[in-house]
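Late entry, written up from scratch paper. The run itself happened at the end of the previous shift, but nothing got recorded in the book at the time, so transcribing now.
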Amino acid sequence: NYFTFGDYEVELIKKNQNKSPRLKSIGSINAATAKEYFKINKISFDEKTYDICLLSEAHYFLNTEYPDVPDISENIGLVAKYTHQFCKKNRKKLIFSGRNDINALNKNVEKIFYENQLKGQKFEISFPNRKKFENFQNVIKSDLIIASHSTMLKEAIAFKKKILWCNWVDQTEFPATGICKLDSKNYENFEIRVKKLLEMNYDEYLSEVKKYDLAYNSKIDTLKFIRDELK
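Output as recorded:
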């Protein structure tokens, strides 16, 4: 059995294997568990706190995740640089959501990664308590989620959030197309796109996105499916 976020991975595996396992897109177990946690603990998010949530994607172990991709650190850094620049120029409220848990030893290395990439620019990273799903709370409390290839960009779809996938890292792919995906590395184009996304409501955003189901299956009850499988 092989379960995926969306249909894109299902088709990709079928295409590249002669004998495929049982495949089904079921969304994210983490995102579904976060939803259940918030419901059980009666945690509500009635008001938007931030305009933008920038997802940290720090790579600091000699590029072990994408060893054959050139300039990956620089491109990740560029997303952070542009987002901070945009928020400062346009007076938007930003939460820079850390990749590491608040108690993780690597969080200081994550800071150093961005200090090297942002070249003296002031920034703060909010490291979440993952036991309380604070990384998902940062997403929920924001209007727009920005990153280059973070898994949480897909998971944000589960919470009906507008996302911007900065398609600047080779060998990573986001199957959805339209306003949610930016190929240009030009700051002016980035600023125009982010402004437009912030001005849209969610329905307007969806009208300018195609193939969203390929990225994330939001129509299934993920935890119910998994629990039924385990009976």
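The chain has a mean pLDDT of 91.
(Scratch paper discarded after transcription.)
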